[in-house]
Amino acid sequence: MNVNTGVGRTRIQGRAGVSPAPAGGRTAPRRANLTGPEDQPSLATAEGGPAHSKGPACRLSPGLICIDVSLLVGLVLFACTTFAAPGARPDLTGRVVGEDGSPVSKATVFIYTAGPKLGTSSLCPSCYVDCGKRARTDAEGRFKIESLDPKLLFRLLVVAGGREANFVSKVDPAAGSVDITMTPLDPQALNSKTRIAGIVMGPEGQPVLGATIGVEGVGRGDSTQWGGTDADVDPIAVSDDQGRFLLRCKEEITAVHAIAEARGVAKRWVKLTPGRDHLVRMEEGVTITGRIVRDGQALKDVVLGLTTTERACGICLHDFETATDARGRFVLSNVTPDNRYFLFSKMESLREQGTLPVMTVKTGATGTTLDLGDLELRPAHRVAGRVVLADGKPVPADTRIFLGREQAWDHTESVLGPDGRFEFEGVPAESVSLSVRVRGYKFSKRNPSLDWLNGSILGRVEADIPDLTLVLEPGQWQFNRQDEDLPPGTERQPSGKPLRGAKF
């Protein structure tokens, strides 16, 4: 497929078919190509039912678990000098051209993944807020993606009709404009028996421009691999002005599981079969409204998120997000209908102001509105402490600690101080996980809140925690084998127990 693979999700052996991606995590667009197949002899409706269906069941080979490994083991170290002024959020500008230097118009440039310029992070590369941002090139091939994090380097994905997708790595928006060259797509791809072609149609039967078909898993006979599929299939396709899209697969792939989404319609799961043409029908979805108040007073700029209560691969949907206006009102539009969700406030939008506890909501039929009325904030907590290395060495500079919520798709990060100290404000009274990546170290078994399955720290916050000590020891976590040393009576995943630190 003439494409590179990057840090991403993969499958590892385990006990369940769930997808514990990081709370607040964004699934960034993956590699793609856009084409306009002229012949559509037959269009099969994409499997997974109408837009409001739950989608295909998570079919796994025995013992398979879908885990975002990049969340658990962190990012590769990115080191670079930044030219941005402290606190400035630079725009990314550039130009997309063909091999002959002519401009490529209507190309889509995605922020694919990101990583810190300095230090390390346990946040998955596609989970930064900027991931998923995109821009379309104009007639001169120029594009601009506004207001990016100055502390990050970015990996771009560029797709355009009739051209090979292109990756551009380690992009610093503050370093100046980016020039990107694209090559023509092999014409044989249009007629290949392993290609997937289709049309995305809106609620009124109109073609949908700019819809993304993001691949999440692939089938091989009776087994399904979730994540880590970049070498097997184009990771994303973007529909053209006639709603047409194309994905290319390897010969052994028998099914592709993807999420279809576009502006103004509800996202949905689809199951696509190589060698066939598909019709992907989208629906309007449900509107959810409400008002956020504290002590009866409306709050502005509170960011709210929504994720399905079901986290199984092939069913979970997330990244529904909005913010309150000056009257405290919020509107979540085009929510996938007939489903159950967790509604929550984002920690970084409130901090010490409080928190909206996770609440469960149920959507009805497409086209309906669910008004939740006034939702009162509750007090949040402070979690502070330090990370220490068992061998007495100092924690490396610019090391980050990640805190994610168990139910909400929400997270926050903090850079450890020189003495390993950290502090989080606005943490809800609920189960959270903490993770730190230091090369050559793992969380020690001395940590009473150790998650023995995934190698992180897991527990429930019930009050302020002023001095939480987390111990790292030399070694590497052995996923799905480390819990063989589990002491009798110890829970593998203590999410319901109070979060506790180690004695050191």
Brief synopsis:
The chain has 504 residues and is an all-beta fold. The chain has helices spanning 69-73, 347-350; strands at residues 10-13, 44-45, 64-67, 92-98, 108-116, 134-136, 142-145, 152-159, 166-171, 178-182, 195-201, 212-220, 223-226, 236-238, 244-248, 255-261, 268-272, 277-281, 286-294, 297-298, 303-308, 320-323, 329-335, 340-345, 359-362, 369-376, 381-389, 400-405, 411-415, 421-427, 431-436, 441-443, 457-460, 465-474. It has two helices and 34 strands.
Topology:
Layout: E1 10-13, E2 44-45, E3 64-67, H1 69-73, E4 92-98, E5 108-116, E6 134-136, E7 142-145, E8 152-159, E9 166-171, E10 178-182, E11 195-201, E12 212-220, E13 223-226, E14 236-238, E15 244-248, E16 255-261, E17 268-272, E18 277-281, E19 286-294, E20 297-298, E21 303-308, E22 320-323, E23 329-335, E24 340-345, H2 347-350, E25 359-362, E26 369-376, E27 381-389, E28 400-405, E29 411-415, E30 421-427, E31 431-436, E32 441-443, E33 457-460, E34 465-474
Parallel strand pairs: 2-18, 4-10, 11-18, 19-26, 27-34
Antiparallel strand pairs: 1-3, 4-7, 5-6, 5-8, 8-9, 11-15, 12-13, 12-14, 12-16, 16-17, 19-20, 19-23, 21-22, 21-24, 24-25, 27-30, 28-29, 28-31, 31-33, 32-34
Give descriptors for this structure.
504 residues, mainly beta, 2 helices
Beta content:
35-45%
Cα shape: globular
Task: Give the oligomeric state of the chains in this entry, treating copies of one chain as homo and distinct chains as hetero.
Answer: single chain
Q: Give the biggest beta sheet.
A: 5 strands, antiparallel
Distance between the termini: 52 Å
Number of strands: 34
Q: State the helical fraction.
A: under 10%
Return residue spans where pLDDT drops below 50 for at least 5 consecutive residues. 1-43, 48-86
Mean pLDDT: 82
Cα gyration radius (Å): 23 Å
Overall structural class, as computed from helix and strand content, comes to: mainly beta
List the total number of helices.
2
